[in-house]
């Protein structure tokens, strides 16, 4: 009698395990992404925007230093700033694989976010003036 109960208990455990695995498979199938639908995460957006912001600030420092060393003056320096900021979108789009919708909320976050932020512009002017003065004035 006890062997029969033990056998029934083990067979019910196997059936329960199979049910659980089928339920897990169904859940995994539900979670699979349709290529046309994307699950968006605010935390990932925030991180991606932070990385893009870091890239833009880094580019302003490099461009400001280069313009200062080359001795560019006037509006030409600001034109280089705008060009450098627009060129920042190229590595971002390459890293995204051309599909920015999975990584950013909208296209303007990729192209226009932080271009005219005071931190970026002032960092550009700071490094432009420092390197211009070091190379051409002193």
Task: Please specify the SSE layout and strand pairing.
Elements lengths: L1 H30 L10 H29 L4 H13 L1 H8 L10 H5 L6 H20 L1
Helix pairs in contact: 2-3, 2-6
Keywords: Endoplasmic reticulum, Membrane, Transmembrane, Transmembrane helix
InterPro entries: Emc6 (IPR008504), EMC6-like (IPR029008)
Family: Belongs to the EMC6 family.
Overview of the molecule:
By secondary structure, the protein is an all-alpha fold. The protein is built from 6 helices and no strands. α2 (42-70) packs parallel to α6. The longest helix is centred in the N-terminal third of the chain and has 30 residues, at 2-31. The mean pLDDT is 80. Pfam families: EMC6. It is a multi-pass membrane protein. Keywords: Endoplasmic reticulum, Membrane, Transmembrane, Transmembrane helix. This is ER membrane protein complex subunit 6.
How would you summarize this macromolecular structure in one to three sentences?
The chain is mainly α and 138 residues long.
In round numbers, the mean pLDDT is 80
* Percent range for β-strand residues: under 5%
Span between termini: 101 Å
The ordered string of helix (H) and strand (E) elements is HHHHHH
Helix content: over 70%
Contiguous helical run count: 6
Flag low-confidence runs.
none
Structural class: mainly alpha
User: What spatial form do the alpha-carbon principal axes imply?
Assistant: rod-shaped
Q: Report the sheet with the most strands, covering strand number, pairing sense and barrel closure.
A: none
For the CA atoms, what is the radius of gyration? 28 Å
> How many strands appear in the DSSP assignment?
0
Keywords: Endoplasmic reticulum, Membrane, Transmembrane, Transmembrane helix
InterPro entries: Emc6, EMC6-like
Family: Belongs to the EMC6 family.
Transmembrane segments: 53-72, 78-98, 110-131
